[in-house]
Amino acid sequence: MKKKIAVITGGDSHERVISFKSAKVVHKYLDKEKYEPYLVHIDKSQWALVDGETNYLIDKNDFSVDYNGDKIKFDAVFNAIHGTPGEDGKLQGYFDLLGVPYTSAGVLASALTFNKGICNQFLRKVEGVNVAPSMVIHKGFELPLSEVLDKVGLPCFVKPNNGGSSFGVSKVTSESELAPAITKALEHDTHVLVERFVKGTEVTCGVLYINGKLTTLPLTEIVTKSQSGFFDFSAKYEGMSDEITPARISDELTQKVQETTKLIYKTIGLKSLARIDFIIENDIPYVIEANTTPGLSEESIVPQQAREYGLSLPELFDAMLQEELK
Questions:
Q1: Catalytic amino acids?
Q2: What's the mean pLDDT when you consider all of the chain?
Q3: Burial environment of residue 101 by CB neighbours within 10 A (0 to 12, 13 to 18, 19 or more)
Q4: What does each C-alpha distance from 194 to 17, 62, 261, 321, 326 come to in angstroms?
Q5: Ordered domains of the chain (ranges, CATH)
Q6: Is the pLDDT assigned to residue 237 strictly greater than 50?
Q7: What is the pLDDT of residues 290-318, one digit of tens each?
Q8: What does pTM read for this prediction?
């Protein structure tokens, strides 16, 4: 019997537009011989199964829905929500209470990786993982800018501490740019991460269990063409970057990044699919962040890596679900 899968999308952040793209691709490419996928939009206003122009409200008591006269209870959830509440542990806690399996990391790992500053502190203590100097500034907390620069230095990145898709991120090259960059980041969050700029080759690595074995996908090298000079929103989603898979680095460095990716995955306690981003400076890979719900649109990085590895999208999505449905 086919498994009924809720492909959840939407969310309450600026990343919802990316979430819709990912969910549509998942819904399209899930193996219809094995699964019955249903698009479920989740946001603050309502939870609903969406079929064309019709919305069928979800019963939050058991995450079921009355659909065309039948009550559907889902066998599993395919999490395609980027940002809150799908990437920060909130929905994971809800599904854990109900006993509904889901793709993406669990509550603790999701909460940890969503808070970039705390995650950096955690990973700094892990032998074999390199993290750039950084500090977190709280909204309303007055801190001399000179103190920030003494610790982090120039150039540096200023970004919302919680969030993704490069919303509110600035590259700062002078002290005069720091205050406006912090103000910009605070439009998206109440905490701001200021992080030393690491100059080098940017690469990213997808990782997941395939047939019970933790597997790293081929690395992707990212060369931005954006005017900002970094992998910002236009570089990620508007074609302003070259994404080269496999990355043009040595086999030795490739193996080093892949082993570090596995170490981070295991240490944080991730599950399902994740993507770990690095910048390699002087042959040292510095972790930038861990993404527990990476983009899954056809042009996204992980699908590119999967194709290079030899996995089609139906096979990739099936591997993710099979691990949760064991």
A1: 15, 165, 237, 275, 277, 289, 291, 295
A2: 91
A3: middle
A4: 26, 41, 23, 36, 41
A5: 3-103 (3.40.50.20), 111-130+199-324 (3.30.470.20), 133-196 (3.30.1490.20)
A6: no
A7: 999 999 998 899 999 999 999 999 999 99
A8: 0.88
